[in-house]
Design goal:
With 125 residues, the chain is of the alpha/beta class. It has one domain: Response regulator (Rossmann fold). The protein has a 5-stranded parallel β-sheet, sandwiched between helices. Strand 4, helix 4 and strand 5 form a beta-alpha-beta unit. Helix 1 packs across helix 6. 31% of the residues are buried.
Length: 125
């Protein structure tokens, strides 16, 4: 079953670059992975295409994580990563994540800026 990791950010470009470094680390460990936008969570056909993966890394605006969104998703989110740009929202994100037993990871600015995907993947897996 695919493990879903959702990166919460403001826009996506720097988060997508960070997720690519995490993806490379996962691939280097022999895992089958993909990156996509968070909206695939709400599309049954798109979600189904990732069922054969080990990890699916998604990125979305931090405002996307709501109780309603989590209840209508076709995939279960295993881990939420909070980018430094939205750390001011971390308390509300953690509260929602805890209710759904989602692991929550607040990324340090240094980890994010250095694209330290290997270190981050070690924490996720």
């Amino acid at each position: 079953m695919v493990k879903v990791v959702l990166m919460l950010c403001t826009g996506g470009l720097s988060s997508q670059l960070f997720l690519k470094s995490v993806m490379r680390a996962a691939e280097d460990n022999g895992y089958k992975v993909a990156i996509d936008f968070g909206s695939v969570l709400y599309n049954r056909e798109m979600s189904a295409q990732y069922s054969g993966l080990d990890y699916l890394f998604l990125y979305a605006p931090a405002t996307e994580i709501t109780k309603d969104a989590l209840e209508t998703a076709y995939l279960t989110i295993d881990t939420v990563m909070i980018s430094p740009q939205v750390r001011y929202m971390s308390n509300s994100i953690k509260t929602i994540a805890q209710e759904y037993t989602i692991k929550c990871l607040l990324l340090e600015p240094e980890t994010f800026a250095e694209l330290a995907g290997k270190e981050c993947f070690e924490i996720i897996k």
